Amino acid sequence: MSRRRDPDDLIARAGRGDPRQDQHFLVDDRVLDRIPTYAEEFDTEHALEIGGGTGALTDRLLAVADHVTVIERDRDFARFLRTEFDGAIDEGRLSVVQGDALEVNFPAYTVCISNLPYGIATEVAFRLLGEREPAVLMFQTEVADRMAAEPGTSEYGRLSVAAQHFARVEIVEPVPPEAFDPQPAVDSAIVRLTPREPDYRVPDEDDFLSLVKAMFTQRRKTVRNAIRNTTHISGLADGDAVVEALDEEVLSRRPDALEPAAFARIATVAAEVQ
Ligand SMILES: C[S@@+](CC[C@H](N)C(=O)[O-])C[C@H]1O[C@@H](n2cnc3c(N)ncnc32)[C@H](O)[C@@H]1O
């Protein structure tokens, strides 16, 4: 790779990040250089970056992608990115979108590679999962662990089921606070999401995710009670009918022990009896 921009130089010119705005900029060149390598097996024709900041990662993405779209909420950093990368913009290789990543439309990207703003990382993850495109994302470790968690663990929850439903989830690198400026109060980890078809079917994706969301509000109850108590969240018209149609084996388990396929089975039975 040719010489990339120095992250400390970028901060010196763009200004330091404000932690209250989720602005923790990567300053460790080795981590910055490694991030695109985790996407080597993916189509990097159009990379989406959420939260461009001073552009240290944008610079690395421009070295591997034909086109990069950066979404940055902060007006000053968005303006800085447009000036700093005016050459790439003139060549038609970079688009800078100033706005909130939870609100703006995503372009038709082929891979998302981002050091996410942690305050909205879980919501962004749900949004990205629905896009069914590959991703390499920096999260705080606690969120990365939840995505990769196995049934029966305290980290296992709605995010685990959704992530594993859409993708193979791999934690590819732990990243310490010292890699950032300013340093976050938490440890971080890079997660790779490789889209895949699950080995089970769901009748309707939205209904499945609503059911999972509902059941995890009662994660330590039995499945029987969780189904009955959460119809206002799951949208099930008749929770009792669903319970009656399910086997005792699943009804007596707890939602936090159910693998994604078991939630899919409940969603299938629910669709049949509604
Ligand atoms: C953790 S920093 C990463 C910056 C840069 N990519 C890097 O790696 O150094 C997150 C960036 O997301 C931006 N941001 C925060 N909330 C955002 C939102 N809702 N939508 C888009 N960008 C946001 C912040 O201004 C900040 O620049």
UniProtKB/TrEMBL annotation:
Classification via Gene3D superfamilies: Ribosomal RNA adenine dimethylase-like, domain 2, Vaccinia Virus protein VP39
Cited InterPro entries: KsgA/Erm, rRNA_Ade_diMease-like_C, rRNA_Ade_Mease_Trfase_CS, rRNA_Ade_methylase_Trfase_N, rRNA_adenine_dimethylase, SAM-dependent_MTases_sf
Class of the enzyme per the UniProt entry, highest EC level: transferase
Any Gene Ontology CC annotation: cytoplasm
Compartments, as annotated in UniProt: Cytoplasm
Annotated keywords: Cytoplasm, Methyltransferase, RNA-binding, rRNA processing, S-adenosyl-L-methionine, Transferase
EC number, as in UniProt: 2.1.1.-
Residues where S-adenosyl-L-methionine binds: H24, L26, G51, E72, D100, N115
SMART domains registered for this protein in UniProt: rADc
Boundaries of every Ribosomal RNA adenine methylase transferase N-terminal domain copy: 31-197
Protein origin, superkingdom: Archaea
Keyword Cytoplasm set for record: yes
Pfam family, one: RrnaAD
Keyword S-adenosyl-L-methionine tagged: yes
Any one GO molecular-function label of the UniProt entry: rRNA (adenine-N6,N6-)-dimethyltransferase activity
Stated family: Belongs to the class I-like SAM-binding methyltransferase superfamily. rRNA adenine N(6)-methyltransferase family. RsmA subfamily.
Cross-referenced NCBIfam families: ksgA (TIGR00755), PRK14896.1-1 (NF011486)
Function field: Specifically dimethylates two adjacent adenosines in the loop of a conserved hairpin near the 3'-end of 16S rRNA in the 30S particle. May play a critical role in biogenesis of 30S subunits.
Name this protein carries in UniProt: Probable ribosomal RNA small subunit methyltransferase A
